[in-house]
Amino acid sequence: MAAGAPTATGRPLAALARLREPWSDRRAELVLGAVACFVLALIAGMIVFVFSKAWPSFSENGLSWFGDTGNVNQQLDTIQQPGTAEPVYTFGAFDLIWGTVLTTGGAVLFGIVFSTLAAVFLVEFAPESIRRVLTPTVSLLAAVPSVIYGLIGILVLAPFIGKMISQERKESVGGIVSLTGENWLLATFVLAIMIIPIMTAIIAQALRQVPRGWTEGAAALGVNRWRVMWTVSIRTARPAIIAGRRAGHRPRARRGHHARDGVRRLGVRAEPGRRPHVLPRADPPARRDHRLLPRGAREPGDRGDALQHRRRPPRLRHGAVHRRVRRQAADEEVRNPHLMATVPKAPKRTGAVESLSTWRWTDRIALGLCWACGIALCLTAAAILLYMAFRGLQYLRPELLFERPTGAVDQTQSGGILDPILGTMLLTVLGTAIAIPLGVCVALWLVEYGRPAGLARAVESGVEIVAGTPSIVLAIFGLIIFQQSWLGWLSFTAEGGGVFGRSLVNASIMMSFIALPLVVGATREGLNQIPGHVREASYALGKTKAATIRRVLLPAVRPSIATGTALGMGRIAGDTAIVIILLGNTLLIEPQGDTPVLGLLTGTGSTLTSYVYENSPAGEGGAYEKAYAAAFVLLLVVLALNFAVARIVGGGTTSRSTLWNR
Amino acid sequence: MESMTPPPVRRIAADRRATIAPQPLPTNGSHAQAPPAGPVTRGSSRPERQRVPAIERMRTEQLVLAYGGKPAVKGVSLPVRQGEVLALIGPSGCGKTTLLRSLNRLTELTPTATRDGKIFLDGQDIDELEVTQLRRRISMVFQQPNPFPMSVFDNVAYALREQGKKRPGKRELMPHVEEALRRAGLWDEVSADLSHPALRLSGGQQQRLCIARALAARPEVLLLDEPCSALDPKSTEIIEDLIVRLREEVAVVIVTHNLQQAYRVADHVAFMYLGDLVEYGPTEQVFHAPTQHRTREYVGGAFG
Ligand SMILES: Nc1ncnc2c1ncn2[C@@H]1O[C@H](COP(=O)(O)OP(=O)(O)O)[C@@H](O)[C@H]1O
Ligand SMILES: [Mg+2]
């Protein structure tokens, strides 16, 4: 049955359905499409707008923009101070670019190698007991907000490295350069530690999704496990490994009944240039597969014996024979007792006698590295989590949660963390409240309509661009836009007419862009999982497409939406840049004016992340005890959200979404 | 038969291969399309083939396999002979695939699978063999064609490249690749462009490529799990002829759903039912004079 024309033949029925359903197909498509276009326009608008704002800086400097002249801070100041005179545009980004390349490049290079080895360990070589602990730990670490890693870096590692630098060396530079231990190496190292869990989770997922047919096929040829990994799995997963960041959004897959067809799937994967799509998942594959796959199917793609036979022309006799055989089996047992006499006694699991002596020495080294990385990951994970728990329990007292903070520098005087907690909650709730309807509509339109194809692709790319944009860039986007005078009512306008541009709504709106791709991705994934025949069944009952979406599809993807939402909440709660730049970063929640709700919304505040940042040596306070306490609360929030995701993913059958967030 | 020279005779027809390889397809009339009415067509006139000396290469003894404690194969004892094709038949879910996969210990890749009983290769318990060495000697072709996402050449050369302690060069590999492709009856179709991506071949070609890939490593036992279930009749025919030819050099075990196919290619047939080995015997006997009731019902149903 053609999915697009359910009502073509049944006019009266369709009319009836239309009576009962307020939404006609046409209107549903228009509304969903409009939302998708709206989101696209916002994203495109942001890009164009920021580019136009950045243009003076480029045109002023020409190619020397990439040089090292000018003063970075000068220009940043003119952006951040609204209403000042002509901005100064002489600017050389060399130091910034070089810094980015140095830290990111170093961290990514180290991270890719380390994470690949750790993921191979996790998927293939880890003993079952380690695997069971390490898999959820890695996804938890992947969700830990970056500010916590920064806190550990600056409070633990920097002094440590600072101590390693000898007194003579410190004196030799005569105090001109302060060798505190805060340096490129440390930044790179902390960045690497930060990205390794994320990358490991993604790569492990990609490795698990390599079709079993390939890995088993290689194993069946007598190739050892490392070489199977190296020549087949890693090769297949390579695009996913390189494009690690973009995971979480699966470009348009054919939905429904084809999705699990093995041959087709292999075919799709084989197309050159198509990356295998990865969606990190919480639950171990074994459990998932057995739950979701038809009986007898051993891998996604294998449709199980029953289905496979159904595809062939029916052999009528087979069933009859089968029944007859079963009926007579009982008689025969009596006559041939020896046939059934061999009742198995609890068989044992046979272990593979695997001898490294046949391995190439390069493989043996690689295996050693694999174990080393795996163990290192275990130790790092344990160290970070235990350290944070220890510090948190040490400094966190219940009254902290209910006291408002004060501006005092003295740690005993600075009050509790009530306002940051409220700030985190408000921001998270508002941000996701904006993201959910938009994200769900975009996903519905993409999967169920998606016409015209060009527009759909543009929306897809727009969402992916947002997903790949660092939150600090989003924050700057937001600041420039919300400082426009016609958006002044969203924050407050100073005497001179300068718009402050920082408020709870503004921050929430930009935060919703962080959650949006996750909601869209998870919902699409959920929709793609719903077999086509479910939709067809609904059409066959005379329901319109719009009614099908409302009554069948939306309830079915609710777990997916919940997953996306929880992931988005985790990322919003963990974000620092947008809070500091767009929320005003005032210690207390400071409403604007006297109107109750509106005042709060247009007012400023802080969150746990900015509180941690400000109380670490990187910020102003240096109140590291408070920072640890707040970081611990933040960790608990993320842990709870992570747990919620795991529950949703594990509990729902339609949702196969991700535990990965940041 | 039992009195034949025991192992260590590994490859009997090593020097005869070249003459066998490029043989054109048999063209006798019985190979033409089957009329849809009669279930047995070319199978009913089982092609008379030259007898090949048979040597026992493998044996299972009271083999029990279970998934998560639930038995799938319940105490099966079977010989596998070189020079013969052994077909495993039975309704789906009766444990054929499980039994086959246990022969080269692929079941160990399934975390829940457990095993009891013994499997011998040339009189040696396979648990005592190094697992990659074992799988080099006992190769397997799967139900779904699963060529790697590489070129045709790389696919066939894969085992040779990855098995040894050092990587042979392309020039060294070429004769082996060509020979394997010839034996699998694929050479004429792919020789023009060996760098063609394997996944762009047709299903039948892919499956023959998988057979070539398995043969390139010179296995002593070849396991085939419903190799033709996803293929068209023409490709099926080519593969069946290939299996019959191969049996002189390697011991072949084929799992099949298709009783006519079992009848056409097998010398011995084992009928399994719900994990039990119900009947094992020469093909003619199993199909025409089965001793067990259940076999008669199952086989009789298929032959009308
Ligand atoms: N990976 C697995 N996990 C659990 N049960 C399995 C698995 N593979 C097969 N089984 C079960 O073992 C029995 C035999 O399966 P199989 O060997 O595939 O049968 P056949 O190939 O004869 O159709 C079936 O009942 C099947 O459900
Ligand atoms: Mg099977």
UniProtKB/TrEMBL annotation, chain A:
Q: Which organism is it from?
A: Svornostia abyssi
Keywords, sorted A to Z: Cell membrane, Membrane, Phosphate transport, Transmembrane, Transmembrane helix, Transport
Q: Where is the composition biased (Basic residues)?
A: 246-258, 309-327
* PANTHER family (alphabetical): PHOSPHATE TRANSPORT SYSTEM PERMEASE PROTEIN PST (PTHR30425), PHOSPHATE TRANSPORT SYSTEM PERMEASE PROTEIN PSTC (PTHR30425:SF1)
- From the Swiss-Prot or TrEMBL record, give the protein name: ABC transporter permease subunit
Q: Where is the composition biased (Basic and acidic residues)?
A: 296-308
The similarity comment for this entry is: Belongs to the binding-protein-dependent transport system permease family. CysTW subfamily.
The ABC transmembrane type-1 domain extends over 421-645
Q: What is the lineage of its organism?
A: Bacteria, Bacillati, Actinomycetota, Thermoleophilia, Solirubrobacterales
Organism superkingdom: Bacteria
Q: Gene3D superfamilies, from UniProt?
A: MetI-like
Which chain regions cross the lipid bilayer? 30-51, 96-126, 138-161, 184-204, 365-390, 421-447, 459-483, 503-522, 627-649
In residue numbers, the region (Disordered) covers: 245-331
Q: Which SUPFAM superfamilies match?
A: MetI-like
Pfam families according to UniProt = BPD_transp_1
